[in-house]
Amino acid sequence: MVDSFGYIALTLIVITVASFFVSKNRISSLSSKHKTKSHSLAYYYGLYAAIWTFVPAIILLLLFAVYANQYLETILVSSLREALPELPASFLDLKAAQVKNIANGVLEAEDAVMAEVAREYEVARGQVMNIRFASVMLVGLAGFGYAYFSIAPALESRIIFENFLRNLFFVAAAVAVLTTIGIISSLLFEAFRFFSAYPFLDFFFGTHWAPNAAFKAAGDAATGEVLGSFGMLPVMAGTLLIALIAMLVAVPIGLFAAIYMAEFASRRVRDLVKPTLEILAGIPTVVYGFFAALTAAPFFRSIGLNLGMDVSSQSALAAGGVMGIMIIPFISSLSDDVITAVPQSLRNGAYGLGSTKGETVTRVVLPAALPGLIGAFLLGISRAIGETMIVVMAAGVSANLTANPLESVTTVTVQIVMLLTGDTVFDSPKTLSAFALGITLFLATLMLNIAALSAARRLGEKYD
Amino acid sequence: MTDFSSLSPAQRQAHIQASLKKRHAAERRLKFFGISAITLALSFLAILLFTVVSNGYTALQQTETRVQLSLPVEKLVDEEGKIDLEKSAAFNWSGLVKKAFRAQFPDVKGMSDRRALTDLISANAGYELRQEIEKKGSIDLPAGEYWIKTSDDVDMLMKGRMSRDIPENQRRLKDQQIAWLDELIEQDNVRLVFNKAFFTKADSREPESSGILGAVVGSAMALVVTVILALPLAVMAAVYLEYFARPGRLTDFIEVNINNLAAVPSIVFGLLGLAVFLGFFGMPRSAPLVGGMVLALMTLPTIIIATRASIRAVPPSIRDAALGVGASPMQAALDHVLPLAGPGILTGTIIGVAQALGETAPLIMIGMVAFIVDVPTSITSPATALPVQIFIWSDSAERAFYERSSLAIVFLLMFLILMNLSAVLLRRKLEKKW
After folding, report:
1. Alpha-carbon span A342 to A345, nearest angstrom
2. What is the pTM of this model?
3. pLDDT-based confidence at A462, cuts 50/70/90?
4. Cβ–Cβ gap B391/A416 under 8 Å
């Protein structure tokens, strides 16, 4: 009971609701006793007390949720070290997990030493949990006490409550910023740890990618010696090759579809086709991956066999082609928006000079829409290089430095997934290199997005 | 360029007529490209949907075979005639089922032949019989006919997914096994029934006893967490940005961040979850709680943008009226504008959640890709999600998993269509014209 997070949170909520009603009654009785009108409506005093009861206590509870486990972990590790001095560092995590399972009653202790460590851990955990319960309740009640005694008709409780809400709203808006900071700092932190073991330049300009060599010699990885080879050029080249194939499919189809729908199609056709095309955008990427791996790839392979060409069963063509299908609606709807945003006066001018509709589109509308279209293509590329499931399921895992679309290549996202799934030691260069790839991917897509936005903005400024 | 002034009017006319033809042809070409692009895109969609449905629909059925079983009642029940779980656990259910199945072919002798024969029935057949009997609590039919599942290979052959014509050494069922099976079919001992396991079970090593329930529950839990976190945060952020943010660098920075987050690759959110939620905060791996948190961060921009749009769609006069009769800005926003923006916020949330439902990569990063045979019971227990289950199955070698993967996709798409449809209908029903 006492060590359940949900139970404490529920108790706290009950106390908070009680504090709301107690305080609301108190202000009513206070103002009738003093025969004065309170500054705010009675329920604002209830809300005021509820904030004081709930907020500090829940913050404390969340802090416990974060730090109590870390504290217990350090205690556990140190007691394990003491009890089993000859245990290699790489087995520490495994043993620690065993101890937790023994303490939870899931596992039977193998020997007396483990049973003792587990008992110690259980005692320490019990203490921490008791302290947590007691301190959270104490802070909650103290907050309520403070609010209760500060309630007076002159207290501007509505203003205090609204200011609190406003700050809370600001924090909510700042979550987006915090997320960005979280992404950058966590990726950079792990990437720096990788670069402290592996030279920076070799990573970005090396032409040999073989992270599994490090895995085979995992024992040496613990000593800090890097045995794998992490030159990301072939991985990056593979990513770009697949993105290029995807864009070769998506741009012509998406652009022509957008031109037709924006300039030629009747309203009825438009209303029918547009939502249907958007279904393509709503299909989960794992479905495209399934289609690419189990339908498109064998299809291309059999065509290749008939033509006497050797097509890999994980060819870049299959992954890129299906990815292109996925990006079609993205390109077409963005381009459609851009084309319809071109002012009608430009078209009218062209018609006035005797242009046909086709000439107006190709010589006036498209050049005017060009910056926006480029923005749309850049966003499409950003999508393509960040796309994961299609390539994980349909592209290869070995890094080939090739421009042949019939061969198998690998991509940044495939490597991230490969490096971080399965049984891996979290601190090895192999897993850390995934974060170095991650930050590269993040920065690349960020730059593409910014470039796309500024291109689109330039269009807006020109004709507004 | 021709110098028109040197030409006679008739020549000029002819020249223009000729070039007009060309110009109209160019326009027709452009139109043709447009129509073919749309046709191509729509046919891709049709092919995709057709592939999935045509591969998947057979997974709605499962092959079973009839065996005559005699359950040793005294070895399984206590004095009151109820199933004794301890006795049941000690009993060799698998052996019983195999023996009963082999009894139909008394001529089959020899270790390898007998193994080939029992390979026709599901390796889980004994275990599933045990579960069925234990659930019932008593033995109604000590000796009689029971239908048990066949192995996935037999299932594939019965549904026509495995051809009898390919050479024996490339076929998973050998000629002898097919002959036995044909004998069973002749005796009317094989039937195709509705595949209940697909809807009531979680993952399994054996295709015939694997289902999507575990993944659906995992997805549902993660999405509940996503909505609980993302919806309030998004509404608060949107109200702040629309009404309380002072124009300036800080506000611009927040807006740029929100727009940029909407375009960050989903796998990067997975890396964030792995490094921060699992690595730094020590939260449990593979849990729907963490999955939901990562998906919440991902869908946050979508819901914020939708909420802001629907707040802006509420006429300013509503707010002005509230302010005019003495409401504070906060009261005007919360009591008057937000309720009117509610339908728009709701549809935006549904669309955001539909996006989150299809996400796979970030969930793989936080370990929801594990092999889990139990339906998850809490948001901190290990779980997988529906799209991840599709990924896991399509990675498996068995043809039967391929079929189940396709059917799971059909269900995922049905969920998505349902969500988007309800968003559209809600919008139409609740939308106010001012």
Report:
1. 9
2. 0.89
3. low
4. no
